Records
---
Amino acid sequence: MTEAPVLRVDGVGKQFRARWALRDCSLELPRGQVSALIGPNGAGKSTLLMLVTGLLRPTTGTIDVLGEDPTRTGMPTGASFMAQHKPLYRTFRVAEMLRAAATLNRHGRWDAGHAARLVEEAGIGPQERVRELSAGQRARVALAIALGRRPDLLLLDEPLAELDPLARRQVMGTLLAEAAETGMTVLMSSHVLADLEDACDHLVLLRHGRVRLAGDIDALLDGHRHLTGPADGNADLAHPATVHTTTAGRQTRALVRGMDTPPGFRAERPGLDDLVLAYLQEPERAA
C-alpha cells in the first residue's frame, strides 16, 4: 500500500489584488525525504510556504498537510516552520526565548530538553541576549525552536540566507543529523542551488508562480539529457521535448527530456545545475 504524502498541494493559487503570486500549483512531498524548493526571487516560494502553514489562505485550490487542511486548522501539530527572517524577540535572553517557545507550543509536542541541547551544542549561552548573537547563532536558536516541536514535517524559508560559509555548514549539519535520526520530512527554500544540492533528494522548482518541475532528483536527472552539437543542427532541436537551447559560435547546447539524440549530437546526463538553469530559462508556453 502506497504511503500518503506528507504534503499535497492541488491547483493552488494565491492572488494579491491584481497580482497572482502563485497560479495552479500542484505537488506532493514523499515522507522522509529532504526536499529543495528552488526558484528565483519573487517566484512564490515564501507565499507557498505561508499557505502550507496556514498563515495565508489560498485563492484557489486545496492543501493537505499531514491529513489536515491548514486553512481550517492552522499549522498542524506535526509541522514546524522557520521563517526567512527568523523572528526572535531580540530583547530576550536565549533562556527566555526558549521559555516563550515552550508556552506558545504548550498544546503540542514541545521537547524543552531537546531544544536546550541544540542551543548548548551550538555553543550559545542561555543568558546571552538575542540581539547580541551573530546571524549564524540566531539561526541556530531559531532552528532549535523549530526542531523542539518534534515535527514530522519541517518547513524552512531561506534558512541559510545571510549566513557565512561556516554557519551554513553548521546549520545544515544540525538539520541533516536531525532528519537522519527522526525520519522527518523537510522542505526548505532557497534561490541559491549550491545551498541545497548536496543535501536534498527531492526537488520542487518554482518560476513565475508556477511549479515547473517536481520529483526525485535522480529520476529527474535520468529523464533528461544534455546535448552538445553543431550550431547548424538547431532544426533537430525544434521539438516539444527541448527545454532550453543556447548557441555560442559553432556549438549548440540543449537540455531535452525523453527524446532520441539527433545525428551529430553528443548526449550526457545533466548535472543538477544544468537542469535547474535550463528550466529557469525555459521559454513561456501558451496556457
---
Amino acid sequence: MTRQNDEVDELFDVSNAFYLGNYQQCINEAAKISKPSLEKDIFLYRAYIAQRKYRVVLDEIKSNNDTPLLALRFLAEYLSVKTKRESIISAVQSYTEKNSSNAGDLNVVWIIVAATIYCNEGNYESALQILHGVFHLEFLSLQLQCLLSMNRVDLAKKVLQTMQEKDDDATLTQLSQAWLHIQIGGEKLQDAFFIFQDFCDKFSPSLLLLNGQAVCYIGQQKYDEAENILRECLNKDPSNYDTLINLLTLSQQKEKNNSLFNRYLSQLSDEHKDSQLIVSYGKKQAEFDRLVLQYGPSNNKSIADIAV
C-alpha cells in the first residue's frame, strides 16, 4: 500500500464522522493522527465551524495563512460577524474567480466554502455555477442539495445517478439518496429512514441522522414517533437549528393551540436570529404591520368618542 493510500485510510474515520454529522467524533479522530496533514486540519476546523465554535477557528487560523485553511477562516468569520458578510462574500468570490482553473486541493476547499456561503444566502444559482463541471463527490452532494432547495427533483436525480456511478457505497452518495427520497416523499420516505437507520447502527446516531429520521416520520404522519426522536435530539443539543425547525413543524401538526409553536419560534429567534427562516419571518411580520397601517381604519378615535 502506498503512502497516499495509507493517509486516505487514516482519514476515513475523520471525514466519515464529519459527513455523518458526528462533529465531536471527527475532532477526536483527527486528534489521534499525529503526523501533519492539511486534509485532516480542513476537516477538523470544518467540524469546529459546524459546532459553531468560531473563535477556535479564528484564533488558530491567522489572516495571513497561505494555505487552504484561510478559506475556513473566511467561513467562520462570515458566520460569526454579520457586519463583515458583504466584504467576505466579495473576497471569496474574487479569489475563486482568479483560481477557477486550479483543480488542486486549494481550489476545492475555496469552492466548498464559496458554495456554502452562497447557499446560506439563498443564492443557489451562484452555488451551482461555482460547483459546475467538477465531479468531486462533495461538490455533487452540494449540487444535489441546491437543486432540492430549488425544487428541481428532476435534475437532482441526474446528479445522484452521477454520484452512484462514481461511488454508490460512499457515505455522501447514500445520504444524498436519502435527501432525494425525502423530497420525493410517499413510499420513498421509508427508504430514506432505512438509510439513516443503517448509518446509526454502523456508527452512532448524530443530530443529522436523527433529524433525518424525524422528517421521515413527519412525512408519514407518525407524529408520536417523530416527537420521541426530536426529544432525543433536544437532549443532545437544545439549541440545534434543524431540531427546532422540525419541532416547529411538528407542533403545527399535533397541537391545537399555538403555545409550543410560539415557544420554538422564540427559541429560534434567540439562538438563530440570522437564519433564513427568522430573517424571512421578520420581513413578513414587518410587511404585515405596514399593510395594517396602510389599509387599517384612518380614524383613530374610539367608538365611545365618536358616539359623544
---
Amino acid sequence: MLPGPTNVPQRVMRAMLKPIINHRGPEFHEMYPRLLEKVKKVLQTKSDVFVLTSSGTGAVEAALSNIVKPGDKVIVPVAGEFGSRLADSVEIYGGKALRIQVKPGDSPTAAQVEELLDREKDVLAVAVVYNETSTGTTVRELEKMGEIAKKYGALFIVDAISILGGDWLPVDEWNVDVCIAASQKCLAAPPGVSIISLSEDAWKAVKRGRPATLYFDLPRYKKYLEERKETPFTPALPLFFALDEALDMIFEYGLENWIRRQEATAKAFYSAFQAMGLKLFAKERARSNVVIAVYAPEGIEVGKFREHLRVKYSVVVAGGFGELKNVIFRVGNMGAVTAREVVTTVSSIESTLADLGAQVPLGEGVKAAWQYLKDL
C-alpha cells in the first residue's frame, strides 16, 4: 500500500511476457500509435503525447530541458519534497524559480499564483505539482490556476505523476500545456515509463532554442513518431506492453468509475483513521484521494510501526520525507485498490498499533470504513 509503485493486476503483469518485437518493425509501428491514442484518452487531450522510457522524474526533466531557457521565470508552488524538486529542476536548466512556499499539509491557492503573476513580468510558466506525494495534499484549485495562467499568457505545466487516473484531470479543458505522468501510480502499471503531453503553445516555447538534452529531445521524438511511428531510442518494450494493457483495463472499467472508486476508498481510509483516534496530517481542503498521510500516535516510532506491519501482517506503507520521516506514515490509495485492500490495511494497522502498546478501539476503523465500501 505504498504511494508508488502500487499493486499491479495479474493481467498487466502477464502483458510483459509477450515476445519482444523489433522496435523498428511493423509490429511496433502498429502498437505505438495505438498506445499514444490511449494515453490521449486518459489525459483527455488532443495535444501531442509521448511515452518515455524513464521514471516520472525523467518526464519532468524532459519538460523543463525542452521548454526552459536561461533566465526564464517559472512560478513553482512548493508544498513538499516534489514541489521543491520541481523548483530545483527549473534552476538546473538556467531558469529562475519563483517559489510560493506553502506550509506542509496545505496546498497553494489560485490567488497566490495570480498575485505573483501580477507582480512579476514576463513569466514563462506556472509549474504545479498537482498531488504532493510527500505530504498527502492535492491542489484543489488546479482548474482555476490554468485559467489564470492563460489569462497572463503563461504556460501551465502540471506534474500529475502521482495522481493521473486517480483524480480528475481533463488536460485540454483545464488549459494544461504540459502534463507529466508515470506508469506506476494510479494507472496500476509497473514502474519505468512516463508520459508527457505538449500543447501548441508549449511547442512554441520549445522551438525558441535547442533543447538542453539529447535523450529527452522532444522535437526528435515528434519527428520519429510522424515519420517512422517509432521512438528515437530503444523503448522498454515489456513496460510499453504493460501500460497498453493497464489502459485497456481502466477503459473497460470506465475512467470515471476508476476515479470514483479511488474517491470512495479514500473516504473509507480517512473515516477509518479518524475512528481509530488518529490525527490526519493534511488540512481537510487539501487532502489527497491517492495518498493518505497520518500522524503516528504519541509514543509510536514510525520505523518500528512500519516494520511490524510489514513483517507480521504483510502490509507495506510509507514513512514521511525529511523532517516528517518520524512524524507521519503514508498509505497509497492508488489504482487497483478495492474494499479488500482497504479492510486488510485498516485492520492490520489497528492490530499493529495495539501490538505496539497504542490505545486504539479495535474494529472501529473497519466499521467506519465499511460505510464507503459496501457499494463497491
---
Amino acid sequence: MVANANWNRKKPAWADEVDDELPAPEIINNPDGTKTVISYRINPANNKKVRITQKVREVKKKERVDHSVAERKKWAKYGAEKNSGPGPNVTTTSVEPDQAFKLGLKPSKAEEEAEAAAKAVAEPAPEAKIACRICSGAHFTSRCPYKDTLGPADAAADKAKEPAATTPAAAPAGKSGSSYVPPHLRAGARPSDRAASNHGERDDSTTLRVSNLSEDVTEDELRRLFSYCGRVVRCHLVRDRDTGRNRGFAFVCYETRSEAEKACEKLNGYGLDNLIMRVEFSKK
C-alpha cells in the first residue's frame, strides 16, 4: 500500500522547482578573444530563476602606479574570491575607468589681462543718469509734473545772466521814431495779450488744474464744458508721450481771474464720464 501511494503521487514540473542556491557563473572563452559569462538570478516579480548571458572583452592596459599599489594587487584574496586569480573578477566586480586628477596652476599675467578684458566686454555699459531740466529730478523733462507751472531751469539760468531790459512805456503813435506800437502796449490791450508778450512768463493766476479725468475725455469736451463759465483762452489735456492716452488731468486758462474763480466754484466736484472732477487753481 505504501509503494502504490508513492507511485501515484504527482511529480512537480521542472519549472516549479526553485533551488535555494543558484548555480555558479560560467565563463566560456570564445575564439575571437571575447568571453561569454553566464550567470543566474531570481526574478522578484515571479520568484523564478533567470539566466543572464553576457559577452565581454578584456583589454589589457599598462600603466605606471605607485609601488605600494602594485604590492597591494598581489595580496591573497579571501572570502568568496579566495581561490580566484589576481586582478578583479568581472562577474563580481564593476571596474570603472580611471579619473585623471590634475592640479590647477596659477594663471599668468597675460591670461589675467585677457580674462579681465573679456569680462569688461560682457558687462553692460553703465546707464546714463537722467536729469529733468525743470525740477532736476530723475525723469524725462516731458514727464515732469511741474512742466506746466515751472519753466526750464537752464532757460531761467540763462535769463538771469542777461542784463535787465527796460520795457518801453506805452506811447501814442507818431511821437517816437517808429509809428508801429505792439498790440500789448496799445491802449485797451487785454490781459491775455499782455501775458502772451512776456516770452514764457505766463500769468497762472487764471489757470485751473482739472484732475481725476476719464481716459475717454477730449479737449473739445473740456473746452465746451468750461466755456459756460467764461472765455477759455487755453485748454491743454496732458497725454502720455509713449501711449498717447491722457494722464487724467488738464489745464484750463481763462481770460480773467473772476471767470476762473466762478469755474472753480461751479465745476469742482462735477461728474464727467462717471468720475468726479477736481478743479483747483494751478500752483506755481
